[in-house]
Amino acid sequence: MQQWARIAILGAMFVVAYLLILAWQKDYGNAEQKPQQNAAVVSHEVSADLPNGQTATAASDVPQANNAATQQTTDATAPVSQQLISVQTDLYHFWISPKGGDIVRVELLNHDKNKDSDEPFVMLESDAKRTYVAQSGLIGLNGPDSNPKGRPSYEIEKSSYTMNDAKAVKAKDGQTAKVLSVPMVYKTADGVEVIKTFSFTEGKYPVVVNHKIVNRSAQNWQGQMFGQLKRDNSEDPGKSDQGIFTLGTFLGGAWGSPDEHYNKLKFANFNEEKLNVEATGGWVAMVQHYFVSAWVPGEIKLTQNGQPYAAKLESRKSTDDMNIIGFTSPAINVPAGTVAEVDATFYSGPKIQSELKDLAVGLNQTVDYGWLWPIAKLLFLGLQFFHGLVGNWGWAIILLTILVKLILWPLSSKSYRSMAKMRVIAPEMQRMKEEFGEDRMRFSQEMMALYKREQVNPLAGCLPLLLQMPIFLALYWVLMESVELRHAPWLLWIQDLSAMDPWFILPLLMGATMFIQQMLNPQPADPMQAKVFRIMPIIFTVFMLFFPAGLVLYWIVNNSITILQQGMINKSVEKERAKRDEATPVN
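Predicted structure:
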């Protein structure tokens, strides 16, 4: 009974893990992609698809502004340089187009394209291969981005910035940081000046995009700020191909608000399940494996103090099948002779939970650990703690496994002790089986009496497997979703703990430890059970060939500690039984 239960649980673990991977691929992996649209080679202008007023043509793939009047200002700015603005910080290399002030390319300097390349990971780009850009501006009655003549052409001071141009700025928390400001200016013929400024903070990924409206005209100025992400249907460049599995997480849109912290929206559903929510403190994003781009609406400042605004969060498909998710602010009225400011924060980079949590409520949940997130979160915090001590994620996994085994030691010891007793009384059970032969009822009665006399629970050996299963699956998601472990080396040939072992050494070691562990268990008396029992390590070894090396490392250490623990308990129980047999008089 006990052996069949253990085999059933092992088989269930195998099947459930496989089904979870399939479900993960269905829900989070990349859906079949449509043929890539040919995007223009990087230039100073990206096709519009911007928010607009109700006067826009039917072909305009944009949400509507709050007013229906025609944009009235004219472009009095001289043509700007055709060059993109290059901004390089310690974390980013940005390219900004003077035409509209769109972010058309972002390279992450601290993250490689792949483990065999020193090229930086490209987050945003606009070229013949892929279109993924971040756009922002002012729309509405007087917004320059609503001009039927096209996006505003901003005047720029220079076309290249580095952190050497940064200045020390005192933040709200009293800390001083180096902030690089990249200003762009647009002037209208009637005296309105729009100053669009990108502010980069040293050591930080969030970028503040501020629009300052200086109304020197004789009339009221009215408009709205928008921010949006525009992406085609190309594959996720961050996914990894591992043997028979193509491991990837959710690729699509996401949004959140203080009431609904985290919601996913597949690209295919951008029209059918269109996002249309108004929220203060909300955010919109596009999520991919390990990385995220997001807009977080900020404040409107009409006087000295700024106030957070209720933004309208929206999603849609453009006429050329681009995926667009973004926000628009409420109408901003700037009386003649006054100044107003409106801003938002843009994030494009790794899914670092601490930074995302501080940026907006629920944005850190783009690090999606699935339905086992409470366990996964604890495991990740443990990994972070040990990594801080040893500076290597591989050793951190080993130390975390030891900690988990120590926590579960008292509970698992009871199970292993019961299994050890089963092992000791195995000869007695075999004798009873031979004695009672085909009388199964008598055999069952005598066996239950033996269990009671020896204080053995035949199902106790299943408990360690049941405890390991959720931890195993939660750690799988931690390794798949935590960017901190992306391309993280351990030692020798293991140079990426989030990828499979290229030489398959760890899976073979795992199979060996599983076999040794089974030899310490009571062996099935039934030949069929024994055969199934012997083949399980082979099945799991094949299965583990394509799992992340970090997960296989966890299983090896877990098995090794179990072998040590079970070996000690087996010897202890055998000694106790030997002493009891010596003290029992022979009839």
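Summary: The domain at 41-365 is CATH 2.70.98.90 (Beta-galactosidase; Chain A, domain 5).
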